[in-house]
Each structure stands twice: as C-alpha cells, then as structure tokens.
Amino acid sequence: MSQNLVISIDAMGGDHGPSVIVPGVAVAAGRLPGVRFLLHGDETALNAELARCPAARAVSEVRHSDRAIAMDEKPAQALRRGKGTSLWNAVEAIREGEASAAVSAGNTGALMAISKLILRMSANMERPAIVASWPTMRGVSAVLDVGANVESDADQLVEFAIMGAAFHHAVHGSDKPTVGILNVGSEDQKGHDEVREAHAMLKDMDLDLDYQGFVEGTDIAKGTVDVVVTDGFTGNVALKTAEGLARFFSNEIKSTFMSGPLAMAGALLASGALKKMRHRLDPGRVNGGPLLGLNGIVVKSHGGADAQSFASAIRVAVDLARSDFSAEIERNLQRLTAAKEKCETVQPEGGAAE
Amino acid sequence: MSQNLVISIDAMGGDHGPSVIVPGVAVAAGRLPGVRFLLHGDETALNAELARCPAARAVSEVRHSDRAIAMDEKPAQALRRGKGTSLWNAVEAIREGEASAAVSAGNTGALMAISKLILRMSANMERPAIVASWPTMRGVSAVLDVGANVESDADQLVEFAIMGAAFHHAVHGSDKPTVGILNVGSEDQKGHDEVREAHAMLKDMDLDLDYQGFVEGTDIAKGTVDVVVTDGFTGNVALKTAEGLARFFSNEIKSTFMSGPLAMAGALLASGALKKMRHRLDPGRVNGGPLLGLNGIVVKSHGGADAQSFASAIRVAVDLARSDFSAEIERNLQRLTAAKEKCETVQPEGGAAE
Fold it and tell me: pTM for the full model?
C-alpha cells in the first residue's frame, strides 16, 4: 500500500524557492522509501537544482509552470491569476488523481483559496482550518485553528475537534486523542457563547475522541491534551506569541553565554546538551500544517523553512496520505450529523444559561 | 507630595496569606521611603507576622477583619458575602479617603466585582480591564485586557489604548507610549470588525499616544510597541500561553544542565549568567496588574507571588498613585468623547468595507 505514493510539490514556494525545496525533497527521499514526487515550477531552475541533488532526481518528475504566486500576493488576486502557477498545479495534481497530497511553502492565503476552489470542502464544512503541531512537555499537541478563520462558531469548533483528533491520530500516533477547548478558565460558565456551546456539544457526543473539557493557555506547553481547539484569531495570536517568546529565549540564552569568560566556558562544556535542547524546542522540527476540511491533503510548510524542515512537512503529507485520516473524519462527521438530527427531533433543551 | 502616601493591603489574599504579604510589605518599605500601609486581615495573625518583620511594623497599621474571601469563591457569591472581608475593607479604604491605592493577591473575579461596586467605573466605562506588564527584548510592554472582559467592542479597545498608554507612561516612564492593536496580520483589512473599527478610530484621533497600527503575536516579545491592546479573551490566552511556555523553557534548561557531567560543569561555570537571565525573564519581576477604569487605584498581584514579587505589586500601586495617571486618562477620555461627538455631527462616512 505504501508503494508508489506520489506527493505533489510547489517547488517555487517559500522564501527560498527551488534552492531549498529540491534539497528538502532529497532529504525526504532518504527518509521515505517508496515515495515519488511531482515537482511543479520553472523547468530550468528545477533541473539545475536536481543536477546537484541526485537523491531527489531519482524519485522526481518535473512539471513545468511558467509562473509562481508571490508571497505577498492577496488571496483574491492569486485566485484570479493563479491558474498555471506552480502552487495551482501542485494542488490540481491531487484532483487529477496524479498525487495523493500536495506540499507548499508558498503564500498561505493563496494556498487556502486555491485549494478550496480546486478541491472543495468535504461534507458541509465552510473553510479550511490550519493545524499547528506544537512541542510540549509531553510530546506534540495539535492546535487548531491557527489562522484560517477569524471567527468560528460552535459547530466549527466541534469540527476542529474532530479533524484535530483524526490528525493527531494519523501523524502523532495517539490511540484515542484527548481534546480540550481553549478558554479563559476551566469552569463550565467561563468564556463566550461559542466555546460554551461547543463544550456542551462535545460533552454529549459519541465521537472517536476523549473530550476533556476546557483548557487554558498554560495547558498548551504542558501538553494537557493532544488536541487544543480554538478559533483562528485566538489560535493565531497564541501561536505567534509563543514563536516570539521562543525567539526571545533563544536570544537570551545566546547573550547569556556570551556575557563573560566563565559563561562562555560553561556554554562550551554544555554545548552538546544545549544543541539537543534547541532541537527539542525548535518549531521547525514539527513543520507542516495541513489545511484540514478539504477533499484532499494539502500541507503548508513555513515560508522560511530550510531543507530539513521542508522534509518534515513532506513527512506530514505522507503520514496523512498513508493513514485512514480522511475516512476517520468522514466517519466522525457522519456521527456528528446524526447526533445533531437526533437532538433536533427530541424537544429542545432550552437556551444557554445567563 | 510623595510624603505620607498610604497603601491599603489585603493581607489575607493570595495562596500564602500574611506569611508572604507581611514580608512583602517589609521589602517594599525598604524600597519606598515615605509610604505607609494599612494592613487588613486577622489581627492576631498579622501581629504575629509583624513581630517578625520590624521594617513592616514601623510603617503599618493593622485593621482587623473577621473574614477573608477564598481564592476559588465565585465573584457573585463574593459580592454578596464580601462586606467585612479583608479584600472588601482594603478597597473601601480608598473610597473612605484613607488610602491612595489598594493591593490584593486575592481572588481576581472577586477583586474586580467588589472594586467596581465600591469605587464605580470612571467616566462611562463598563468594566475594569486588567493590564499585564510583559518583559520584552526592549523593556516592558503593557498588554491589556488580559482577562477582565471576555468580549470587547471597538469603543472598549480604544479605551484600553488610552488607559494602557497612561499606565505605561506612569509606571514604565515612556514619554509618548507607542500603541498597537493585536491582530492576525498587519494589513488594514485583517481581523474582525471590532479590531478594524478600533484601528480606524485610533488612526484618526488626537490622543496622548503614538498609534502604530496592528501588531501580531510575535511583536509582543519583540517589544514593537509599549502598549498592546486586545480583548480579554485573546489577551488572557496569550498571557497564559506565554507563562506556560516560560515554565517549559525553564524546565528544559534545568534538565539540559542535569543531562551529564559536562553539561553540569558548564552550568556551574555559567550559573551567575543563568541566574541573571532567569531574573530578566521572570514574570514575577514585573508583578502587579492594575484594574484600570475604576475611580481609584487597585492593583492585583499574582496569587502565588513571593515577598519580593508582592513588593513589586506595591511599587506599581505607589508609582500610579504618585503620577498623574488618573488625570491623564480623564483628559484623554474627554478628547475621545469630543472626537466622537464631532464625528457624529459631520455626515456619516459610510460603513466598513466588506
């Protein structure tokens, strides 16, 4: 089953384009035997890079695209003039049945808009959600949505729970993922209507996940739950706040160890352990945020990813493609729909308490 | 002017009560000559602690309260049965004109509800906002609201900007504080209606602050602006996410340096520099979040604060009381009201763009 899996790559995306993407494919090729790649982008540039990366050349096929989408292009504009770009073609290869998943380090808004147009949303979902894999004291948690949706109602939050759990199961291997809704406190009456309604729905439903109730910001790094559910505004702010803080810490550690001869000697002695620590906390280690809710697997890599990190995003796409991720979501969405219909035929239970 | 300033203390609040609060007053007394304290709480317990802290005893007067509010008591319940508790009495001393400010490490919800009832809101503000002093690469930024308001409309966000700027000026000494609204991107069209409306209002108004537009989560630790404005839900999640991450880093550093003999030797050599770093990143260093918007100065300390940290919260109260903080807010709120009236007499400029 794992033979001949094909991953479609937007080879022009990201801050560095083919000079990082092609070496990234080479790294992934070494780690993921049996996977082949369709590289979309400028033929000349790609062949030049492939000549330097025989490991990538052996498992890749180049598909020429004349144009690429700029990193700062508006999504609406990208939609209008996107046809024929490397990003568009990378996603279209999924619909054409040529590839099982697509990976792009390109413009996030454009990737979302174009993926939605080409692949359409699965079931009755409205917009894709972006999931972040967040390093924690206990492993890696999935946090979603981290930026696709500025506002999310209770139904969407429940969908995020289902999709996040299926993602965590497929990529991070948890058996029955624990799920929490991000809130400002753990008591039932805390927060706004959307989180309280989603909380009430998840408590009652029989889904393939272990709902644990509300969690707070401090719980994310603790790894209290496998899946942290939140609206895209809060999730985006939380993720970027953490990224900013991680950079601050990293700078502080560096300047601390440069602050005098004793500290420098200490840093030298501890350098191996420090390197390991930085690796453990590195967000790039868990690069690769799938756009969930589409009829197809599309993975967004950080724009600034290096080759190692882009290879991690490819692994996420491969893990999802090889798992029964999509079937699991479908199954749970059917249960959700059934549960809702059942609720509606029974008499209404009354509104939310004030 | 700075002579005989009196600060009212809820000496029973916090996780440790008088055993930390009284030593905290002693530390503050050493740092803040000319300040006197009213200690509200159980007379016997307080006198026992004061006997051990002559520096505190010399500048304190004990006011007996029979009861205290529990840390987990619901705000509504605290309001009903709060009269006569140490927290209530500490706040009431402001209204009675006996003290210029109150400090409590007690139950946040109860402190807000009781302060609002006793002191009332200034001008036409609805609910207090809580401001956090956040260590950044460039100093300390004020982030608000971090939990008092679950939802905030555009008018409230503008009020947060005004109050945050006055706070940063009074406590952190910035001349004309820079202000940004927290959002998921920096472009004008990003985010939901509330942030876009507040953005439009702040761009147009002539206030004692330097409005810089939208900022993102990564900008908080960078210290891009002095004042970060956000609704209480997002602010609370961002703050707690950062606190969780800070603890995670701190644990990682410790376990990294215990990971082998070389690393341990390195840690020993670098211990002075590491201690300095931890101090710099310690959220307790900037403990003390005032409840803004009240007719009076009430400062919330972390419940788990130690004596040093409680003394920092006292310093915040003293700095605010000695500055023209309240007058500055009043002045800016008048300008805000005037600007709004002017807007309403001119023809409406049309709704928000889609």
Answer: 0.86
